[in-house]
TrEMBL record:
<dbReference type="GO" id="GO:0016579">
    <property type="term" value="P:protein deubiquitination"/>
</dbReference>
<dbReference type="GO" id="GO:0005634">
    <property type="term" value="C:nucleus"/>
</dbReference>
<dbReference type="Pfam" id="PF02148">
    <property type="entry name" value="zf-UBP"/>
</dbReference>
<dbReference type="InterPro" id="IPR050185">
    <property type="entry name" value="Ub_carboxyl-term_hydrolase"/>
</dbReference>
<dbReference type="InterPro" id="IPR018200">
    <property type="entry name" value="USP_CS"/>
</dbReference>
<keyword id="KW-0833">Ubl conjugation pathway</keyword>
<dbReference type="InterPro" id="IPR001607">
    <property type="entry name" value="Znf_UBP"/>
</dbReference>
<dbReference type="InterPro" id="IPR001394">
    <property type="entry name" value="Peptidase_C19_UCH"/>
</dbReference>
<dbReference type="Pfam" id="PF00443">
    <property type="entry name" value="UCH"/>
</dbReference>
<keyword id="KW-0862">Zinc</keyword>
<dbReference type="InterPro" id="IPR013083">
    <property type="entry name" value="Znf_RING/FYVE/PHD"/>
</dbReference>
<dbReference type="InterPro" id="IPR028889">
    <property type="entry name" value="USP"/>
</dbReference>
<feature type="domain" description="USP">
    <location>
        <begin position="129"/>
        <end position="308"/>
    </location>
</feature>
<dbReference type="InterPro" id="IPR038765">
    <property type="entry name" value="Papain-like_cys_pep_sf"/>
</dbReference>
<keyword id="KW-0479">Metal-binding</keyword>
<dbReference type="GO" id="GO:0008270">
    <property type="term" value="F:zinc ion binding"/>
</dbReference>
<dbReference type="GO" id="GO:0004843">
    <property type="term" value="F:cysteine-type deubiquitinase activity"/>
</dbReference>
Amino acid sequence: VCRSNKSPWVCLTCSSVHCGRYVNGHAKKHYEDAQIPMTNHKKTEKQEKVQHTVCMDCSSYSTYCYRCDDFVVNDTKLGLVQKVREHLQNLENSAFTSDRHRKRKLLENSSLNSKLLKVNGSTTALCATGLRNLGNTCFMNAILQSLSNIQQFCCYFKELPAVELRNGKTAGRRTYHTRSQGDNNVSLVEEFRKTLCALWQGSQTAFSPESLFYVVWKIMPNFRGYQQQDAHEFMRYLLDHLHLELQGGFNGVSRSVILQENSNLSASNKCCINGASTVVTAIFGGILQNEVNCLICGTESRKFDPFL
């Protein structure tokens, strides 16, 4: 309707494409307009059960039901939702195929392809994986790319043991966090670890961090939605929550053991904030020393305040 290319959603009932609710809300309006004819006559019990308007995000391929006002995890018996998701992925891959080949040829003929980062005497290829914009989420992508290029910080999280927060029935399948899940059922550390691993695998040109974004919605209500946000404020919230989750133990795994086995930081560089030290305080933390001298008696007092 508005011809906006931001946050496109496709209706799985009529295949029309509209913008999301945080752009101009035409996808939601499309659902509301479709409900108007239903109010003119009495709906049967069968119609009441099947009248669920489901749409899919063309960028992250997550599905959403406007009637339930929540993200949809399950699929139909014939797996139609997954078929639509695979079809959209094939369209995206074919659209970028020619552009990838052109860029690859340019890289092969330039010195950028052979440029390496030398870290501690070893060589590591430059990371070429980007992050897809989920709708004005460039503030989050900028922070994730910056943190992923801090060697000690990134290596620490990549070496953490993987913790699956789902039962055996959904093991091996891609998970989509919904707003109906409780805050205790999500782990920011685990999703952050998965995102960093995906950025450094180099198996794809772009990665969609929708799972991490939905966890952020759960534990950081200020960042819900697809509107623009402050990148520095997001970084502070992210580091604070990572620090608190690491302090409390990582889903049954002792944080102190993880820090001892995976961190090469010296004891002098570790700063304790609100309890035990973590990799967050070791890299981003510090101690502010305040000195007060009495002009009458000459007494000197010192106070040390940790900061992040």
